[in-house]
Amino acid sequence: MSILVTGGAGYIGSHTCVELLNAGYEVIVVDNLSNSKKEAINRVEKITDRSIKFYEMDILDQKALDLIFKANDIDAVIHFAGLKAVGESVEKPLLYYRNNITGTLSLLEAMSHSNCKNIVFSSSATVYGMNNISPLTEDLPLSTTNPYGTTKMYIEHMIRDTYHSDNNWSATLLRYFNPIGAHESGTIGEDPKGIPNNLMPFITQVAVGKRDKLSVFGNDYETHDGTGVRDYIHVVDLAKGHLKALEYTLNNKGVEAINLGTGTGYSVLDMVHTFHHTTKQPISYEITARRPGDIATCFADTSKAKQLLNWETELTLEDMCRDSWRWQSRNPEGY
Ligand code: NAD
Ligand code: WQD
User: Fold this and answer.
1) Are the C-beta atoms of 3 and 77 separated by less than 8 Å?
2) Cα–Cα distance between 62 and 59 in angstroms, integer?
3) Catalytic (active site) residue 148
4) Domains plus CATH for the chain?
5) Which of 25, 148, 176, 266 is catalytic?
6) Pocket test for ligand 1, best of 34, 78, 199, 320 (most atoms within 8 A of CB)
7) d(C-alpha 230, C-alpha 66), whole Å
8) What is the Å distance from ligand 2's center to 259 Cα?
9) How far apart are CA 54 and CA 19, in angstroms?
10) Best probe residue, ligand 1, of 100, 122, 231 (max atoms within 8 Å of C-beta)
């Protein structure tokens, strides 16, 4: 069975390609390498001893997508390709709307032309907005606080409308919580450009000496220690969730939004301390002002994933810290 993976050279995409190849799927990747390197694909091939058909291409190029669907007998698409930096999306909203929304439109049209109507989409817990109370269930009202989040919410709508117009579609909208960690080989991982926006890559860059200290954004939230609480999920658990979602999508028509998280929240200081005791790397930090747009607490209700996908996470916070550090310390400059 052949799966088209858009954005397959990226952080979550590359880990999902490993799981797909290990499970015996043929993998075709389309990525424009705007936020990744081809080396990630080489390393996935090395880990799995399998090969990937790689197209360096933009999903906005619908004619090229049509040709890929013609040249390959594709059973389903896992759609990771997109821009994901919240702050950048506030500065450059049109770039985000074009890349994420027009890109997905182009992909859905190409899928329609070739009669491939099975898609697993990378949505995000960001679609729950600021006002819902954790644990977050999939039926809560959606809202967003930045253009990035709005692209995810609109794409969910686009996919639902597509299904409503043609019930042969099957789509799973995966709402990820906070993916961290790396493959146990230490050869693939998250490789942010410039100053990391997210907590774990910032922590690992402090540990490796690339950054002085971590700014902890606020310690006056209503949480057990005052710092923000999130649902961190190991990227390998997340990748395995995609395989379950793929099987579900291939076997059921309709559209389902499903949370992928652990169901447990940890604070920023829990992360700093767990990283320290797991890796023996102390992390210097200072408490600074809250980051605009942040909420106190966000974690998943995971019952729908258990029920529909028969999936739950297996790896611990210690595993996440250890594997993030293995990747960072062996690849201090990334790929
Ligand atoms: P990533 O940036 O590492 O991977 C995305 C990949 O898509 C990159 O390789 C990039 O080059 C490619 N890409 C972007 N625009 C493209 C285009 N127009 N044509 C072809 N390729 C394109 O990001 P990631 O962390 O692996 O995230 C994957 C998906 O999951 C994204 O859609 C992201 O929004 C979503 N997501 C990520 C997180 C997270 O915290 N990492 C959380 C929730 C949702
Ligand atoms: C986690 C916690 C921060 C950095 C973002 C996106 C979301 C999703 C995942 C894509 C918060 C605190 C962080 C730092 C800190 N991505 N923090 N110092 O904000 O939960 O989610 O990534 O869909 O859409 O918004 O993740 O890792 O940025 O922050 O104190 O230098 O760490 O305030 O409490 P977030 P994060």
Assistant:
1) yes
2) 6
3) yes
4) 2-182+232-263+301-314 (3.40.50.720), 199-229+264-299+323-330 (3.90.25.10)
5) 148
6) 34
7) 40
8) 17
9) 17
10) 122
> Residue 303's CB: how many other CB atoms inside 10 A?
14
DSSP string for residues in 109-120:
HHHHHTT--EEE
Which ligand approaches the C-alpha of residue 103 most closely?
Answer: 1
HSE, CB side, 13 Å, CA atoms: give it for residue 159. Answer: 31
pLDDT means per 10 residues in the chain (335 residues)?
98 98 98 98 98 98 98 98 97 98 98 98 98 97 97 98 98 98 98 95 97 98 98 98 98 98 98 98 98 96 98 98 98 95
| Confidence at residue 328, expressed as pLDDT on a 0 to 100 scale | 98
d(CA 218, CA 192): 23
Phi, psi of 138 (to 5 degrees): -65, -20
Residue 114, pLDDT score: 97
Using CB distances shorter than 6 Å, the residues near ligand 1 are 7, 9-13, 30-36, 58-60, 80-84, 99, 103, 122, 124, 176, 179
CA-angle at 81, arms to 78 and 87, nearest 5°: 135
Return d(Cα 103, Cα 23) in angstroms, integer. 28
In this predicted structure, what is the pLDDT of residue 220? 98
**Which DSSP symbol is given to 136?**
B
Task: Tell me if 217 CB under 6 Å of ligand 2.
Answer: yes
* Nearest CA owner, ligand 1 atom 41: 179
CA of 112 to the centre of ligand 2 (A): 35
Residue carrying the six token digits 């974690």: 299
pLDDT of residue 31: 98
For residue 22, what are the contacts with CB-CB under 8 A and spacing of at least 6? 48
Residue 145, ligand 2, Cβ within 6 A: no
**What is the pLDDT, as a whole number, of residue 335?**
96
106 Cα to the center of ligand 2, angstroms: 30
Distance, in Å, from the CA atom of 279 to the CA atom of 98, rounded to the nearest integer, reads: 41
